[in-house]
Amino acid sequence: MAIRKKASTCENKPLREERQNAGSENKKRGGAKTAKMKERIEELERELSAARDAVLRARADMDNYRKRVQREMADAKIAAKCDALSSVLDVYDHFKMAVDAARTSDDLTILREGMEMIAREFDKAFGDAGVEVLDALGEQFNPDLHEAVGAEHSDEDEGVVIKQWRYGYKLGDRLLRPASVIVSNGPGQDLNKGDEGDA
Predict the structure, then answer these.
(1) Which residue segment(s) compose the domain that 199 sits in?
(2) How far is the C-alpha of 57 from the C-alpha of 191, rounded, in Å?
(3) In Å, how far are 67, 76, 100, 153, 180 from 167, measured between CA atoms?
(4) CATH code of 163's domain
């Protein structure tokens, strides 16, 4: 029986070696897979880090762009105000001269001439700025350009502007201020005549 045991031990030895070899090969293959997975994880982490950096840079660029646009808008508003005020300053200078002249002289002709000069300067300033003065007197009422502050009977047809309290102004197609007007209700009965007929 001892011979048999030796024989069976000999027969099992190659099997054992084969199993050991297979296990070590599996370990080698598993180790290779693990190494590849670790490399892939590291690569993905680098890509994620790069993407995060790109997002942070994009946010910073957007913030800088927004701030720059706000600065440029503020500068443009100031420049527009300066352009508008520079022509008004000339008119104001002429107005001050007219007031000073009126204080030193009782001659109404000088005052009238000063006021006419100021009106011309305003007209020039408005023309340079592209502002159009809306004179509504005698025109058909237009709710897009006129603001009716009242209505009266008159010899004019109904809807015609018969009085103007303030001029309107346009800049290109944009209405700056509507003209304040009184609109005709058309010819009406004179209430006094009706009372006289009853008496």
Answers:
(1) 131-199
(2) 80
(3) 40, 29, 27, 22, 7
(4) 2.30.22.10
- Rounded to two decimals, the pTM is 0.53
pLDDT-above-90 percentage for the chain: 47
Q: Is residue 150 part of a domain?
A: yes
Q: Count the Cβ atoms, other than its own, within 10 Å of residue 178.
A: 20
Read off the tokens for 81: 């105000």
Q: Determine, yes or no, domain membership for 11.
A: no
**Is 46 part of any domain?**
no
Tell me if 108 is assigned to some domain: no
Tally of residues, the chain: 199
Q: What is the pLDDT of residues 100-126, one digit of tens each?
A: 887 887 888 878 888 888 899 888 888
Instruction: Tell me the β-bridge partners of 132.
Output: 170
Strand partners, 184: 152
